[in-house]
Amino acid sequence: MSTPEIRRATADDLDDLFSICLQTGASGEDATEFYDDPKLPGNIYAAPYIVLRLGLGFVAVDSEGVVGYVVGTPFTRSFEKECEEDWWPALRVVNPDPGLDHDRTDWNARMRSLIHRPVRTPGDLLSDFPAHLHINLLPRAQGQGVGKELIGMMLGAFHVAGVNGAHLGVSSGNTRAISFYRRVGFRTLVEGDEALILGVQWTEEMEE
Q1: How far apart are CA 134 and CA 46, in angstroms?
Q2: Are the CB atoms for 164 and 109 separated by under 8 Å?
Q3: pLDDT tens digits, residue range 46-103?
Q4: Domains of the chain (ranges, CATH numbers)
Q5: Whether 90 contacts 51, CB under 8 Å
Q6: Is the dihedral of CA 150, 130, 77, 156 positive or negative?
Q7: Residue 2 has pLDDT above 60, yes or no
C-alpha cells in the first residue's frame, strides 16, 4: 500500500467523501447501520464544502483510492448564508422535518433536523476563529501523519485567505480524535455534554 498523497478535492471525489463520512460517522467508527440514506451525513458535513463557492477541501489518496479528507471554509458566517441559499433548500424537499421534539436517539432524525435547523456558529467564537473544518480518515490511513498533513494543508489555505483562526466540533466520546486535535495545536473553546468545540490560531511565523 502506497503512502497517501494529498491533493485538492474536486466534485469527482464526492462519492468517496460520502462513503468515508459514513464509515467514520460513529465517533470514528462505521455508522452505516444507523442511516437509511448513506449520503445523509455527507450531505451535511462534507459535500457542500466541495460544491459551494466558499468551501474547499483536500483528499489523501493511496494506491487503493481516497482514504481521507479535510473540508472547510475560511469564512464560516458567509458559508452558512451560502448553504441557506443554495444547499439546504433542495435537501429539505427530500428530507422531511422530524420536528423539534424528534427522538434524539434516532440518527436519521438528528441529521434531518440539522438540515432544517442548521447550527449557527456563535458570533463571539467567530471573532477569533472565523474558519472551520471537518476531517475524516479511514482506519488504514490513521497513524501515518496523514491527518496532521491534511490539517496543515487546510490551515495553510485559511492563512492564504487571510484568516488566522479555525475551529471544529467533535463528539465528547471521540477521545482518540480529541487527543489528535490537541496534539496538532487545538485547544478547548466550548465544552458541552455531548460535544466539544476546539480551536487553533496561528501566526505567520508559525507558518514558516
Answers
A1: 8
A2: no
A3: 999 999 999 999 999 999 999 999 999 999 999 999 999 999 999 999 999 999 999 9
A4: 5-207 (3.40.630.30)
A5: no
A6: negative
A7: yes
**CB of 118 closer than 8 Å to CB of 79:** no
Is the separation of the CB atoms in 59 and 6 below 8 Å? Answer: yes
Helix (H), strand (E) counts: the chain:
10, 7
As a whole number of Å, the CA-based R_g of the chain is 16
Task: Render pLDDT for 163-190 as a digit per residue (tens, 0 to 9).
Answer: 999 999 999 989 999 999 999 999 999 9
The answer to whether the beta carbons of residues 77 and 121 sit under 8 Å apart is yes
- DSSP reduced 3-state for 110: helix
Burial of 34 (0-12, 13-18, 19+ CB in 10 A): middle
What are the C-alpha distances in Å from 186 to residues 10, 27, 79, 122, 148? 27, 18, 22, 18, 12
E-only strand ranges, 139-186: 165-171
Residues 95 and 112: their CA atoms lie apart, in Å, by 6
Q: Is 100 exposed, middle or buried (0-12, 13-18, 19+ CB in 10 A)?
A: exposed
d(CA 158, CA 75): 9
Cα–Cα distance, 148 to 181 (Å, whole number): 9
Element (H, E) at 145: none
